[in-house]
Amino acid sequence: xxxxxxARELPLINGALDEAxxxxxxxxxxxxxxxxxxxxxxxxxxxxxxxxxLCGYAAGDVYKLAVTMEMLHAATxxxxxxxxxxxxxxxxxxxxxxxxxPTVILAGDALLAVANALVAAFGDxxxxxxxxxxxxxxxxxxxxxxxxxGKAEISAAEYEDIVRGKTAWLIRAACELGALRADAPSPxxxxxxxxxxxxxxxxxxxxxxxxxxxxxxxxxxxGGDVREGKMTFPLRLYRLSLETAERAxxxxxxxxxxxxxxxxxxxxxxxxxSGCDARARDEANRYLEAARAALRLLPDKPERExxxxxxxxxxxxEK
Amino acid sequence: xxxxxxARELPLINGALDEAxxxxxxxxxxxxxxxxxxxxxxxxxxxxxxxxxLCGYAAGDVYKLAVTMEMLHAATxxxxxxxxxxxxxxxxxxxxxxxxxPTVILAGDALLAVANALVAAFGDxxxxxxxxxxxxxxxxxxxxxxxxxGKAEISAAEYEDIVRGKTAWLIRAACELGALRADAPSPxxxxxxxxxxxxxxxxxxxxxxxxxxxxxxxxxxxGGDVREGKMTFPLRLYRLSLETAERAxxxxxxxxxxxxxxxxxxxxxxxxxSGCDARARDEANRYLEAARAALRLLPDKPERExxxxxxxxxxxxEK
Lengths: 319, 319
What we know:
Two copies of one chain form a homodimer. Chain A has helices at 2-22, 29-36, 43-54, 62-84, 95-98, 101-120, 125-148, 156-181, 186-210, 215-218, 224-227, 233-240, 244-255, 261-273, 276-295, 302-316, and strands spanning 88-89, 92-93. By secondary structure, chain A is mostly helical. Chain A is globular, with a radius of gyration of 20 Å. Chain A has a two-stranded antiparallel ribbon with strand order 1-2. The first copy, chain A, has 16 helices and two strands. In chain A, strand 1 (88-89) and strand 2 form a beta hairpin. In chain A, helix 9 (186-210) packs parallel to helix 16. The relative contact order of chain A is 0.12.
Protein backbone atom coordinates (compact mmCIF):
# COMPACT_ATOMS: atom_id res chain seq x y z
CA UNK A 1 0.00 0.00 0.00
CA UNK A 2 2.89 2.33 0.84
CA UNK A 3 4.41 1.43 -2.51
CA UNK A 4 1.28 2.48 -4.41
CA UNK A 5 1.12 5.69 -2.46
CA UNK A 6 4.81 6.38 -3.10
CA ALA A 7 4.33 5.76 -6.82
CA ARG A 8 1.63 8.43 -6.86
CA GLU A 9 3.19 10.98 -4.51
CA LEU A 10 6.92 10.75 -5.22
CA PRO A 11 6.83 12.35 -8.68
CA LEU A 12 4.84 15.28 -7.27
CA ILE A 13 7.18 15.67 -4.30
CA ASN A 14 10.25 15.43 -6.51
CA GLY A 15 8.76 17.93 -8.96
CA ALA A 16 8.22 20.46 -6.19
CA LEU A 17 11.76 19.81 -4.93
CA ASP A 18 13.22 20.40 -8.39
CA GLU A 19 11.32 23.65 -8.64
CA ALA A 20 12.55 24.80 -5.23
CA UNK A 21 16.14 23.84 -6.07
CA UNK A 22 15.91 25.84 -9.31
CA UNK A 23 15.23 28.97 -7.25
CA UNK A 24 18.55 28.65 -5.40
CA UNK A 25 21.46 30.90 -6.36
CA UNK A 26 23.26 29.31 -9.31
CA UNK A 27 26.62 28.57 -7.59
CA UNK A 28 25.05 26.35 -4.92
CA UNK A 29 22.47 24.62 -7.12
CA UNK A 30 24.71 21.64 -7.97
CA UNK A 31 25.41 21.04 -4.26
CA UNK A 32 21.70 21.14 -3.46
CA UNK A 33 20.90 18.79 -6.33
CA UNK A 34 23.63 16.41 -5.18
CA UNK A 35 22.21 16.11 -1.67
CA UNK A 36 18.56 16.14 -2.77
CA UNK A 37 19.17 13.37 -5.30
CA UNK A 38 21.31 11.24 -3.01
CA UNK A 39 18.66 8.60 -2.45
CA UNK A 40 16.55 10.15 0.29
CA UNK A 41 13.37 8.28 1.07
CA UNK A 42 11.26 11.50 1.12
CA UNK A 43 9.82 10.29 4.41
CA UNK A 44 9.33 13.83 5.73
CA UNK A 45 7.46 15.38 2.77
CA UNK A 46 5.38 12.25 2.47
CA UNK A 47 4.29 12.67 6.09
CA UNK A 48 3.23 16.27 5.42
CA UNK A 49 1.20 15.22 2.39
CA UNK A 50 -0.43 12.30 4.20
CA UNK A 51 -1.38 14.25 7.34
CA UNK A 52 -2.78 17.09 5.22
CA UNK A 53 -4.88 14.64 3.15
CA LEU A 54 -5.96 12.75 6.26
CA CYS A 55 -7.24 16.03 7.73
CA GLY A 56 -9.20 16.76 4.56
CA TYR A 57 -6.90 19.06 2.60
CA ALA A 58 -7.15 18.45 -1.14
CA ALA A 59 -5.20 21.29 -2.79
CA GLY A 60 -2.01 20.77 -4.76
CA ASP A 61 0.01 23.45 -2.95
CA VAL A 62 0.69 20.99 -0.15
CA TYR A 63 3.73 19.75 -2.09
CA LYS A 64 5.37 23.18 -1.87
CA LEU A 65 4.91 23.01 1.88
CA ALA A 66 5.96 19.37 2.15
CA VAL A 67 9.32 19.83 0.44
CA THR A 68 10.41 22.47 2.96
CA MET A 69 10.89 19.61 5.40
CA GLU A 70 13.16 17.74 2.96
CA MET A 71 15.11 20.95 2.32
CA LEU A 72 15.61 21.60 6.02
CA HIS A 73 16.69 17.97 6.38
CA ALA A 74 19.12 18.31 3.45
CA ALA A 75 20.55 21.57 4.85
CA THR A 76 21.19 19.76 8.12
CA UNK A 77 22.92 16.88 6.36
CA UNK A 78 25.20 19.25 4.41
CA UNK A 79 26.34 21.04 7.56
CA UNK A 80 26.59 17.80 9.56
CA UNK A 81 28.74 16.06 6.98
CA UNK A 82 31.17 18.99 6.96
CA UNK A 83 31.23 19.13 10.76
CA UNK A 84 31.62 15.35 11.14
CA UNK A 85 34.20 15.33 8.36
CA UNK A 86 32.25 12.42 6.88
CA UNK A 87 33.33 10.89 3.58
CA UNK A 88 30.21 9.00 2.52
CA UNK A 89 26.47 9.09 3.04
CA UNK A 90 24.14 6.37 1.73
CA UNK A 91 27.10 4.97 -0.17
CA UNK A 92 27.80 8.17 -2.14
CA UNK A 93 30.65 10.60 -1.55
CA UNK A 94 29.42 13.51 0.57
CA UNK A 95 29.11 17.00 -0.88
CA UNK A 96 32.20 18.57 0.68
CA UNK A 97 34.46 15.97 -0.97
CA UNK A 98 33.03 16.98 -4.38
CA UNK A 99 32.54 20.73 -3.80
CA UNK A 100 34.53 23.11 -1.62
CA UNK A 101 33.54 23.51 2.02
CA PRO A 102 32.42 27.17 1.79
CA THR A 103 30.06 26.33 -1.08
CA VAL A 104 28.63 23.42 0.89
CA ILE A 105 28.07 25.49 4.04
CA LEU A 106 26.42 28.24 1.99
CA ALA A 107 24.33 25.70 0.09
CA GLY A 108 22.95 24.59 3.47
CA ASP A 109 22.23 28.20 4.43
CA ALA A 110 20.53 28.84 1.09
CA LEU A 111 18.39 25.69 1.26
CA LEU A 112 17.19 26.73 4.69
CA ALA A 113 16.50 30.28 3.53
CA VAL A 114 14.50 29.16 0.50
CA ALA A 115 12.54 26.65 2.59
CA ASN A 116 11.77 29.42 5.06
CA ALA A 117 10.58 31.68 2.25
CA LEU A 118 8.37 28.91 0.82
CA VAL A 119 6.68 28.46 4.19
CA ALA A 120 6.37 32.23 4.69
CA ALA A 121 4.68 32.56 1.29
CA PHE A 122 1.68 30.62 2.64
CA GLY A 123 0.98 33.67 4.78
CA ASP A 124 0.00 31.60 7.81
CA UNK A 125 1.92 32.45 10.97
CA UNK A 126 1.19 29.03 12.50
CA UNK A 127 3.08 27.30 9.69
CA UNK A 128 6.04 29.63 10.15
CA UNK A 129 6.08 29.12 13.88
CA UNK A 130 6.08 25.35 13.37
CA UNK A 131 8.89 25.58 10.79
CA UNK A 132 11.06 27.91 12.88
CA UNK A 133 10.57 25.74 15.95
CA UNK A 134 11.74 22.74 13.92
CA UNK A 135 14.80 24.67 12.75
CA UNK A 136 15.84 25.73 16.23
CA UNK A 137 15.10 22.35 17.84
CA UNK A 138 17.09 20.56 15.14
CA UNK A 139 20.04 22.94 15.49
CA UNK A 140 19.92 22.54 19.28
CA UNK A 141 19.91 18.74 18.95
CA UNK A 142 22.95 18.80 16.69
CA UNK A 143 24.72 21.18 19.04
CA UNK A 144 24.04 18.91 22.01
CA UNK A 145 25.22 15.91 20.02
CA UNK A 146 28.49 17.58 19.03
CA UNK A 147 29.03 18.77 22.61
CA UNK A 148 28.49 15.19 23.81
CA UNK A 149 30.96 13.70 21.32
CA GLY A 150 33.48 11.44 23.02
CA LYS A 151 31.60 11.56 26.32
CA ALA A 152 31.08 8.01 27.54
CA GLU A 153 28.90 8.87 30.52
CA ILE A 154 25.73 10.43 29.23
CA SER A 155 22.40 9.69 30.86
CA ALA A 156 19.46 8.08 29.07
CA ALA A 157 17.58 11.39 29.40
CA GLU A 158 20.41 13.38 27.81
CA TYR A 159 20.50 10.92 24.95
CA GLU A 160 16.75 11.18 24.44
CA ASP A 161 17.03 14.98 24.33
CA ILE A 162 19.64 14.74 21.59
CA VAL A 163 17.49 12.37 19.53
CA ARG A 164 14.34 14.41 20.05
CA GLY A 165 16.20 17.46 18.72
CA LYS A 166 18.34 16.09 15.92
CA THR A 167 15.78 13.68 14.45
CA ALA A 168 12.33 13.58 16.01
CA TRP A 169 11.34 17.25 16.00
CA LEU A 170 11.65 17.62 12.26
CA ILE A 171 9.48 14.53 11.69
CA ARG A 172 7.02 15.91 14.24
CA ALA A 173 6.96 19.23 12.37
CA ALA A 174 6.41 17.47 9.03
CA CYS A 175 3.20 15.93 10.42
CA GLU A 176 2.11 19.08 12.25
CA LEU A 177 2.52 21.23 9.11
CA GLY A 178 0.18 18.99 7.14
CA ALA A 179 -2.51 19.12 9.83
CA LEU A 180 -2.10 22.90 10.23
CA ARG A 181 -2.39 23.49 6.49
CA ALA A 182 -5.60 21.45 6.53
CA ASP A 183 -6.81 23.78 9.28
CA ALA A 184 -7.55 20.75 11.45
CA PRO A 185 -8.96 21.39 14.95
CA SER A 186 -6.22 21.68 17.52
CA PRO A 187 -6.65 18.19 19.10
CA UNK A 188 -6.02 16.70 15.64
CA UNK A 189 -2.98 18.93 15.10
CA UNK A 190 -1.65 17.78 18.46
CA UNK A 191 -2.30 14.14 17.63
CA UNK A 192 -0.45 14.50 14.31
CA UNK A 193 2.48 16.12 16.15
CA UNK A 194 2.60 13.40 18.82
CA UNK A 195 2.47 10.71 16.13
CA UNK A 196 5.37 12.38 14.29
CA UNK A 197 7.53 12.89 17.34
CA UNK A 198 7.19 9.27 18.41
CA UNK A 199 7.75 7.97 14.90
CA UNK A 200 10.90 10.13 14.75
CA UNK A 201 12.19 8.86 18.09
CA UNK A 202 11.62 5.27 16.94
CA UNK A 203 13.33 5.99 13.63
CA UNK A 204 16.51 7.11 15.40
CA UNK A 205 16.54 4.28 17.93
CA UNK A 206 16.28 1.76 15.08
CA UNK A 207 19.03 3.66 13.27
CA UNK A 208 21.21 3.36 16.34
CA UNK A 209 20.59 -0.38 16.51
CA UNK A 210 21.34 -0.78 12.79
CA UNK A 211 24.72 0.91 13.29
CA UNK A 212 25.84 -2.36 14.93
CA UNK A 213 24.43 -4.69 12.27
CA UNK A 214 26.90 -6.52 10.02
CA UNK A 215 27.94 -4.66 6.89
CA UNK A 216 26.63 -7.59 4.83
CA UNK A 217 23.12 -6.68 6.01
CA UNK A 218 23.15 -2.86 5.87
CA UNK A 219 25.81 -2.15 3.26
CA UNK A 220 27.29 0.37 5.70
CA UNK A 221 30.46 0.01 7.81
CA UNK A 222 29.64 -1.48 11.23
CA GLY A 223 30.00 0.62 14.37
CA GLY A 224 30.39 4.05 12.79
CA ASP A 225 28.97 5.64 15.94
CA VAL A 226 31.64 3.95 18.09
CA ARG A 227 34.43 5.28 15.91
CA GLU A 228 32.92 8.77 15.81
CA GLY A 229 32.53 8.95 19.58
CA LYS A 230 28.73 9.01 19.43
CA MET A 231 27.16 7.44 22.50
CA THR A 232 23.83 5.91 21.54
CA PHE A 233 21.15 3.94 23.35
CA PRO A 234 22.49 0.45 22.54
CA LEU A 235 26.12 1.50 23.02
CA ARG A 236 25.25 2.97 26.41
CA LEU A 237 23.71 -0.35 27.51
CA TYR A 238 26.75 -2.22 26.23
CA ARG A 239 29.13 0.07 28.12
CA LEU A 240 27.13 -0.29 31.35
CA SER A 241 27.39 -4.08 30.98
CA LEU A 242 31.21 -3.99 31.04
CA GLU A 243 33.35 -4.82 34.11
CA THR A 244 35.13 -1.83 35.70
CA ALA A 245 38.54 -2.35 34.09
CA GLU A 246 37.10 -3.07 30.69
CA ARG A 247 34.82 -0.08 30.94
CA ALA A 248 37.77 2.20 31.78
CA UNK A 249 39.61 0.92 28.69
CA UNK A 250 36.50 1.47 26.57
CA UNK A 251 36.05 5.01 27.93
CA UNK A 252 39.68 5.91 27.23
CA UNK A 253 39.59 4.75 23.62
CA UNK A 254 36.11 6.15 23.03
CA UNK A 255 36.79 9.59 24.42
CA UNK A 256 40.07 9.98 22.53
CA UNK A 257 38.63 8.80 19.21
CA UNK A 258 41.06 5.87 19.16
CA UNK A 259 38.57 3.15 18.20
CA UNK A 260 39.71 1.25 15.10
CA UNK A 261 37.49 -0.53 12.59
CA UNK A 262 38.41 -3.79 14.30
CA UNK A 263 37.51 -2.45 17.74
CA UNK A 264 34.18 -1.24 16.38
CA UNK A 265 33.43 -4.63 14.78
CA UNK A 266 34.28 -6.61 17.87
CA UNK A 267 32.22 -4.25 20.05
CA UNK A 268 29.35 -4.68 17.58
CA UNK A 269 29.61 -8.47 17.81
CA UNK A 270 29.51 -8.47 21.60
CA UNK A 271 26.79 -5.81 21.67
CA UNK A 272 24.55 -7.94 19.46
CA UNK A 273 25.32 -11.09 21.48
CA SER A 274 24.28 -9.37 24.69
CA GLY A 275 21.07 -8.16 23.00
CA CYS A 276 21.71 -4.42 23.40
CA ASP A 277 20.63 -3.74 19.81
CA ALA A 278 17.44 -5.72 20.38
CA ARG A 279 16.74 -3.61 23.47
CA ALA A 280 17.10 -0.45 21.34
CA ARG A 281 14.50 -1.92 19.01
CA ASP A 282 12.28 -2.66 22.03
CA GLU A 283 12.59 0.97 22.96
CA ALA A 284 11.69 1.94 19.39
CA ASN A 285 8.60 -0.25 19.67
CA ARG A 286 7.54 1.61 22.80
CA TYR A 287 7.66 4.85 20.80
CA LEU A 288 5.81 3.24 17.90
CA GLU A 289 3.05 2.17 20.29
CA ALA A 290 2.67 5.83 21.32
CA ALA A 291 2.63 6.84 17.65
CA ARG A 292 -0.11 4.32 16.89
CA ALA A 293 -2.12 5.50 19.90
CA ALA A 294 -1.95 9.08 18.59
CA LEU A 295 -3.11 7.86 15.17
CA ARG A 296 -6.28 6.47 16.72
CA LEU A 297 -7.31 10.06 17.49
CA LEU A 298 -7.14 10.96 13.79
CA PRO A 299 -9.88 10.33 11.20
CA ASP A 300 -10.38 6.76 10.04
CA LYS A 301 -9.36 7.20 6.39
CA PRO A 302 -6.98 5.39 4.01
CA GLU A 303 -4.18 7.85 4.83
CA ARG A 304 -4.31 6.73 8.43
CA GLU A 305 -3.56 3.19 7.30
CA UNK A 306 -0.57 4.53 5.39
CA UNK A 307 0.67 6.37 8.48
CA UNK A 308 0.26 3.14 10.43
CA UNK A 309 2.20 1.29 7.75
CA UNK A 310 4.99 3.88 8.26
CA UNK A 311 5.30 2.59 11.82
CA UNK A 312 5.80 -0.95 10.50
CA UNK A 313 8.33 0.33 7.98
CA UNK A 314 10.35 2.04 10.72
CA UNK A 315 10.12 -1.06 12.94
CA UNK A 316 11.16 -3.52 10.25
CA UNK A 317 13.81 -1.69 8.34
CA GLU A 318 17.07 -3.57 8.03
CA LYS A 319 19.21 -0.81 6.52
CA UNK B 1 21.26 63.83 18.14
CA UNK B 2 22.17 60.31 17.09
CA UNK B 3 24.22 60.03 20.27
CA UNK B 4 21.27 60.92 22.48
CA UNK B 5 19.09 58.45 20.64
CA UNK B 6 21.75 55.74 20.96
CA ALA B 7 22.07 56.41 24.68
CA ARG B 8 18.35 55.80 25.05
CA GLU B 9 17.93 52.89 22.66
CA LEU B 10 21.16 50.89 23.00
CA PRO B 11 20.48 49.54 26.51
CA LEU B 12 17.05 48.35 25.37
CA ILE B 13 18.45 46.76 22.21
CA ASN B 14 21.28 45.11 24.13
CA GLY B 15 18.85 43.88 26.78
CA ALA B 16 16.70 42.19 24.14
CA LEU B 17 19.83 40.71 22.53
CA ASP B 18 21.01 39.29 25.88
CA GLU B 19 17.60 37.72 26.39
CA ALA B 20 17.62 36.18 22.92
CA UNK B 21 21.17 34.88 23.39
CA UNK B 22 20.14 33.28 26.68
CA UNK B 23 17.58 31.17 24.80
CA UNK B 24 20.29 29.58 22.63
CA UNK B 25 21.44 26.03 23.37
CA UNK B 26 24.09 26.19 26.10
CA UNK B 27 27.09 24.91 24.05
CA UNK B 28 26.84 27.72 21.46
CA UNK B 29 25.97 30.55 23.85
CA UNK B 30 29.58 31.68 24.40
CA UNK B 31 30.13 31.88 20.61
CA UNK B 32 26.99 33.96 20.17
CA UNK B 33 27.96 36.25 23.04
CA UNK B 34 31.43 36.65 21.54
CA UNK B 35 30.14 37.82 18.17
CA UNK B 36 27.26 39.87 19.62
CA UNK B 37 29.59 41.71 22.00
CA UNK B 38 32.37 42.29 19.45
CA UNK B 39 31.65 45.99 19.07
CA UNK B 40 28.77 45.98 16.59
CA UNK B 41 27.19 49.38 16.05
CA UNK B 42 23.63 47.98 16.31
CA UNK B 43 22.85 49.87 13.13
CA UNK B 44 20.28 47.33 11.98
CA UNK B 45 18.17 47.03 15.16
CA UNK B 46 18.31 50.80 15.56
CA UNK B 47 16.82 51.17 12.07
CA UNK B 48 13.96 48.83 12.94
CA UNK B 49 13.20 50.76 16.12
CA UNK B 50 13.40 54.15 14.38
CA UNK B 51 11.20 53.20 11.40
CA UNK B 52 8.63 51.64 13.75
CA UNK B 53 8.54 54.77 15.92
CA LEU B 54 8.45 57.01 12.86
CA CYS B 55 5.40 55.13 11.62
CA GLY B 56 3.70 55.57 14.98
CA TYR B 57 4.41 52.31 16.78
CA ALA B 58 4.91 52.85 20.51
CA ALA B 59 5.02 49.37 22.05
CA GLY B 60 8.09 47.89 23.72
CA ASP B 61 8.02 44.59 21.81
CA VAL B 62 9.72 46.29 18.87
CA TYR B 63 13.09 45.49 20.48
CA LYS B 64 12.41 41.76 20.22
CA LEU B 65 11.77 42.26 16.52
CA ALA B 66 14.70 44.63 16.04
CA VAL B 67 17.33 42.27 17.42
CA THR B 68 16.45 39.56 14.91
CA MET B 69 18.27 41.69 12.33
CA GLU B 70 21.41 41.84 14.48
CA MET B 71 21.19 38.08 15.04
CA LEU B 72 20.88 37.37 11.33
CA HIS B 73 23.82 39.72 10.75
CA ALA B 74 25.87 37.96 13.45
CA ALA B 75 25.02 34.52 12.02
CA THR B 76 26.27 35.71 8.65
CA UNK B 77 29.51 37.02 10.15
CA UNK B 78 30.16 33.72 11.94
CA UNK B 79 29.78 31.69 8.75
CA UNK B 80 31.65 34.26 6.65
CA UNK B 81 34.65 34.35 8.96
CA UNK B 82 34.93 30.57 8.84
CA UNK B 83 34.55 30.54 5.05
CA UNK B 84 36.99 33.41 4.53
CA UNK B 85 39.36 31.83 7.05
CA UNK B 86 39.59 35.28 8.62
CA UNK B 87 41.68 35.79 11.76
CA UNK B 88 40.36 39.11 13.05
CA UNK B 89 37.22 41.22 12.90
CA UNK B 90 37.02 44.75 14.33
CA UNK B 91 40.42 44.13 15.91
CA UNK B 92 39.32 41.04 17.89
CA UNK B 93 40.17 37.43 17.10
CA UNK B 94 37.28 35.85 15.19
CA UNK B 95 35.14 33.15 16.77
CA UNK B 96 36.59 30.12 14.96
CA UNK B 97 40.08 30.88 16.32
CA UNK B 98 38.66 30.79 19.88
CA UNK B 99 36.05 28.03 19.46
CA UNK B 100 36.09 25.00 17.18
CA UNK B 101 34.71 25.35 13.66
CA PRO B 102 31.71 23.00 14.11
CA THR B 103 30.55 24.96 17.16
CA VAL B 104 30.89 28.23 15.25
CA ILE B 105 28.92 26.96 12.23
CA LEU B 106 26.21 25.59 14.50
CA ALA B 107 26.15 28.81 16.53
CA GLY B 108 25.36 30.61 13.26
CA ASP B 109 22.60 28.12 12.48
CA ALA B 110 21.18 28.47 16.00
CA LEU B 111 21.24 32.30 15.94
CA LEU B 112 19.33 32.23 12.67
CA ALA B 113 16.85 29.69 14.00
CA VAL B 114 16.15 31.66 17.17
CA ALA B 115 15.80 34.91 15.20
CA ASN B 116 13.35 33.16 12.90
CA ALA B 117 11.35 31.92 15.89
CA LEU B 118 11.29 35.42 17.43
CA VAL B 119 9.85 36.85 14.22
CA ALA B 120 7.38 33.97 13.87
CA ALA B 121 6.15 34.58 17.43
CA PHE B 122 4.70 37.94 16.31
CA GLY B 123 2.16 35.90 14.35
CA ASP B 124 2.28 38.26 11.35
CA UNK B 125 3.04 36.55 8.06
CA UNK B 126 4.28 39.80 6.49
CA UNK B 127 7.07 40.04 9.06
CA UNK B 128 8.09 36.45 8.40
CA UNK B 129 8.07 36.95 4.66
CA UNK B 130 10.29 40.00 5.03
CA UNK B 131 12.67 38.13 7.35
CA UNK B 132 12.89 35.05 5.14
CA UNK B 133 13.46 37.19 2.05
CA UNK B 134 16.34 38.90 3.88
CA UNK B 135 17.80 35.52 4.81
CA UNK B 136 17.72 34.18 1.28
CA UNK B 137 18.91 37.40 -0.35
CA UNK B 138 21.81 37.63 2.09
CA UNK B 139 22.80 34.01 1.55
CA UNK B 140 22.57 34.51 -2.23
CA UNK B 141 24.79 37.62 -2.01
CA UNK B 142 27.44 35.74 -0.06
CA UNK B 143 27.28 32.86 -2.48
CA UNK B 144 27.75 35.17 -5.46
CA UNK B 145 30.64 36.88 -3.68
CA UNK B 146 32.41 33.61 -2.95
CA UNK B 147 31.82 32.42 -6.53
CA UNK B 148 33.33 35.69 -7.79
CA UNK B 149 36.42 35.40 -5.58
CA GLY B 150 39.62 35.85 -7.56
CA LYS B 151 37.70 36.93 -10.66
CA ALA B 152 39.21 40.16 -11.95
CA GLU B 153 36.65 40.78 -14.67
CA ILE B 154 33.31 41.30 -13.03
CA SER B 155 30.87 43.88 -14.36
CA ALA B 156 29.59 46.84 -12.37
CA ALA B 157 26.13 45.24 -12.42
CA GLU B 158 27.43 41.95 -11.05
CA TYR B 159 29.19 43.82 -8.29
CA GLU B 160 26.04 45.75 -7.42
CA ASP B 161 24.10 42.49 -7.21
CA ILE B 162 26.62 41.09 -4.75
CA VAL B 163 26.42 44.21 -2.57
CA ARG B 164 22.64 44.36 -2.72
CA GLY B 165 22.55 40.76 -1.49
CA LYS B 166 25.33 40.56 1.04
CA THR B 167 24.77 43.97 2.69
CA ALA B 168 21.89 46.09 1.46
CA TRP B 169 18.98 43.67 1.67
CA LEU B 170 19.37 43.07 5.38
CA ILE B 171 19.43 46.84 6.06
CA ARG B 172 16.41 47.19 3.82
CA ALA B 173 14.62 44.47 5.76
CA ALA B 174 15.51 46.14 9.09
CA CYS B 175 13.64 49.27 7.96
CA GLU B 176 10.78 47.38 6.35
CA LEU B 177 10.18 45.28 9.49
CA GLY B 178 9.75 48.43 11.59
CA ALA B 179 7.23 49.94 9.19
CA LEU B 180 5.37 46.63 8.87
CA ARG B 181 5.14 46.21 12.64
CA ALA B 182 3.71 49.73 12.85
CA ASP B 183 1.12 48.61 10.30
CA ALA B 184 2.05 51.55 8.09
CA PRO B 185 0.20 51.94 4.77
CA SER B 186 2.01 50.20 1.95
CA PRO B 187 3.52 53.36 0.32
CA UNK B 188 5.24 54.10 3.65
CA UNK B 189 6.46 50.52 3.98
CA UNK B 190 7.89 50.78 0.47
CA UNK B 191 9.55 54.12 1.25
CA UNK B 192 11.14 52.66 4.37
CA UNK B 193 12.41 49.71 2.33
CA UNK B 194 13.82 51.92 -0.42
CA UNK B 195 15.52 54.12 2.18
CA UNK B 196 17.09 51.05 3.80
CA UNK B 197 18.25 49.46 0.57
CA UNK B 198 19.98 52.63 -0.58
CA UNK B 199 21.50 53.27 2.82
CA UNK B 200 22.82 49.72 2.74
CA UNK B 201 24.29 50.10 -0.76
CA UNK B 202 26.01 53.33 0.32
CA UNK B 203 27.30 51.66 3.48
CA UNK B 204 29.06 48.96 1.47
CA UNK B 205 30.48 51.33 -1.16
CA UNK B 206 32.01 53.45 1.63
CA UNK B 207 33.29 50.26 3.24
CA UNK B 208 34.94 49.32 -0.03
CA UNK B 209 36.59 52.76 -0.27
CA UNK B 210 37.77 52.52 3.34
CA UNK B 211 39.49 49.22 2.59
CA UNK B 212 42.14 51.29 0.75
CA UNK B 213 42.59 53.92 3.46
CA UNK B 214 45.86 53.92 5.40
CA UNK B 215 45.94 51.72 8.47
CA UNK B 216 46.76 54.79 10.56
CA UNK B 217 43.26 56.11 9.75
CA UNK B 218 41.10 52.98 9.99
CA UNK B 219 43.08 50.79 12.38
CA UNK B 220 42.60 47.94 9.88
CA UNK B 221 45.19 46.48 7.46
CA UNK B 222 45.05 48.26 4.11
CA GLY B 223 43.85 46.44 1.02
CA GLY B 224 42.34 43.38 2.67
CA ASP B 225 39.97 42.99 -0.28
CA VAL B 226 42.91 42.88 -2.74
CA ARG B 227 44.61 40.12 -0.78
CA GLU B 228 41.38 38.15 -0.42
CA GLY B 229 40.61 38.33 -4.15
CA LYS B 230 37.49 40.46 -3.63
CA MET B 231 36.85 42.74 -6.59
CA THR B 232 35.11 45.89 -5.35
CA PHE B 233 33.90 49.09 -7.00
CA PRO B 234 37.08 51.15 -6.42
CA LEU B 235 39.37 48.22 -7.20
CA ARG B 236 37.50 47.62 -10.45
CA LEU B 237 38.06 51.24 -11.51
CA TYR B 238 41.72 50.98 -10.57
CA ARG B 239 42.13 47.78 -12.60
CA LEU B 240 40.43 49.33 -15.63
CA SER B 241 42.87 52.26 -15.42
CA LEU B 242 45.90 49.97 -15.83
CA GLU B 243 47.80 49.50 -19.12
CA THR B 244 47.39 46.09 -20.78
CA ALA B 245 50.61 44.51 -19.51
CA GLU B 246 50.19 45.82 -16.00
CA ARG B 247 46.59 44.69 -15.95
CA ALA B 248 47.60 41.18 -16.98
CA UNK B 249 50.11 41.06 -14.13
CA UNK B 250 47.47 42.35 -11.71
CA UNK B 251 44.94 39.75 -12.91
CA UNK B 252 47.42 36.91 -12.53
CA UNK B 253 48.37 37.81 -8.96
CA UNK B 254 44.78 38.67 -8.01
CA UNK B 255 43.23 35.50 -9.36
CA UNK B 256 45.85 33.23 -7.78
CA UNK B 257 45.68 34.94 -4.37
CA UNK B 258 49.33 35.92 -4.65
CA UNK B 259 48.98 39.55 -3.54
CA UNK B 260 51.29 40.33 -0.63
CA UNK B 261 50.75 43.00 2.04
CA UNK B 262 53.21 45.17 0.14
CA UNK B 263 51.37 44.71 -3.17
CA UNK B 264 48.11 45.61 -1.44
CA UNK B 265 49.61 48.76 0.12
CA UNK B 266 51.14 49.98 -3.11
CA UNK B 267 47.90 49.31 -5.01
CA UNK B 268 46.06 51.23 -2.29
CA UNK B 269 48.44 54.19 -2.66
CA UNK B 270 47.99 54.34 -6.41
CA UNK B 271 44.25 53.73 -6.16
CA UNK B 272 43.86 56.71 -3.82
CA UNK B 273 46.12 58.90 -5.99
CA SER B 274 43.97 58.20 -9.01
CA GLY B 275 40.84 59.00 -6.99
CA CYS B 276 39.15 55.59 -7.34
CA ASP B 277 38.24 55.56 -3.65
CA ALA B 278 36.72 59.04 -3.98
CA ARG B 279 34.64 57.78 -6.90
CA ALA B 280 33.33 54.95 -4.73
CA ARG B 281 32.27 57.59 -2.21
CA ASP B 282 30.61 59.56 -5.02
CA GLU B 283 28.68 56.44 -5.88
CA ALA B 284 27.74 56.07 -2.21
CA ASN B 285 26.46 59.65 -2.26
CA ARG B 286 24.25 58.82 -5.22
CA TYR B 287 22.67 56.05 -3.15
CA LEU B 288 22.37 58.34 -0.14
CA GLU B 289 20.51 60.87 -2.28
CA ALA B 290 18.01 58.15 -3.17
CA ALA B 291 17.75 57.23 0.52
CA ARG B 292 17.04 60.87 1.45
CA ALA B 293 14.44 61.13 -1.32
CA ALA B 294 12.65 58.08 0.09
CA LEU B 295 12.74 59.64 3.56
CA ARG B 296 10.81 62.64 2.28
CA LEU B 297 7.85 60.31 1.72
CA LEU B 298 7.83 59.39 5.41
CA PRO B 299 6.21 61.41 8.24
CA ASP B 300 7.98 64.58 9.34
CA LYS B 301 8.88 63.55 12.86
CA PRO B 302 12.09 63.57 14.96
CA GLU B 303 12.87 59.98 13.96
CA ARG B 304 13.05 61.08 10.34
CA GLU B 305 15.82 63.49 11.29
CA UNK B 306 17.65 60.62 12.95
CA UNK B 307 17.31 58.49 9.83
CA UNK B 308 18.64 61.42 7.81
CA UNK B 309 21.55 61.72 10.24
CA UNK B 310 22.26 58.03 9.54
CA UNK B 311 22.92 59.01 5.93
CA UNK B 312 25.50 61.56 7.09
CA UNK B 313 27.05 58.99 9.40
CA UNK B 314 27.43 56.51 6.54
CA UNK B 315 28.84 59.23 4.26
CA UNK B 316 31.35 60.57 6.77
CA UNK B 317 32.62 57.50 8.45
CA GLU B 318 36.38 57.12 8.41
CA LYS B 319 36.68 53.60 9.79
